[in-house]
Amino acid sequence: MEELLELEAVAVVCTKCQLAATRTQVVFGVGDPEADLMFVGEAPGMNEDRQGEPFVGAAGQLLNRLLSEIGLNREDVYIANVIKCRPPGNRDPLPDEIDCCKGYLRSQISLIDPNVLVTLGNFASKLLLRTETGITRLRGRRYPWWQGRLLIPTFHPAAALRSQQKLIPEMQKDFELIREALAVPRQRPVVIPPQPAQMNLFA
Description:
Blueprint: H1 2-11, E1 30-31, E2 37-41, H2 46-51, H3 58-69, E3 78-81, H4 95-112, E4 116-120, H5 122-129, H6 135-138, E5 143-144, E6 150-154, H7 157-162, H8 168-182
Parallel strand pairs: 2-3, 2-4, 4-6
Antiparallel strand pairs: 1-3, 5-6
Helix pairs in contact: 1-4
């Protein structure tokens, strides 16, 4: 998709925040630009920063495995992060970094136009649902979201690995919700209403 490539060309030279000084490269996103399913993670890690692709380490292998369990391949979906540059030492993204970067994510969602959006972990879930509720309480259900989409929060694969795999069965339940959600026809509004106040990403 030409518009997505143009957006990526802008992102890869972005200097809006301090992460431009410490990154190896911008990790924009990867996958099918016309995917029905889009994943949003937190931020690139060390492997992602080196390779320029999200979820390429152990967390990415777990994501691939969970996808295969519901009959999908990595190539069938689109994967991005809330922020596109690795925070030093894999620290949490700062609020100003998220503010500087969320416009890229907003445009990615609009251009890819997925029917189902899956947020991986606290940062993506809190941003897109505009809530301070943690992922443990948010996960396990589908949320009606912007322009008829469904949003499903689940744990970040890296957190599942750190839990000595205790969270993986919960993620598998969430991926069953994803499979079911993909079979539900999207209820697109006939007339696009004003942006819901809760969707601050699109405000």
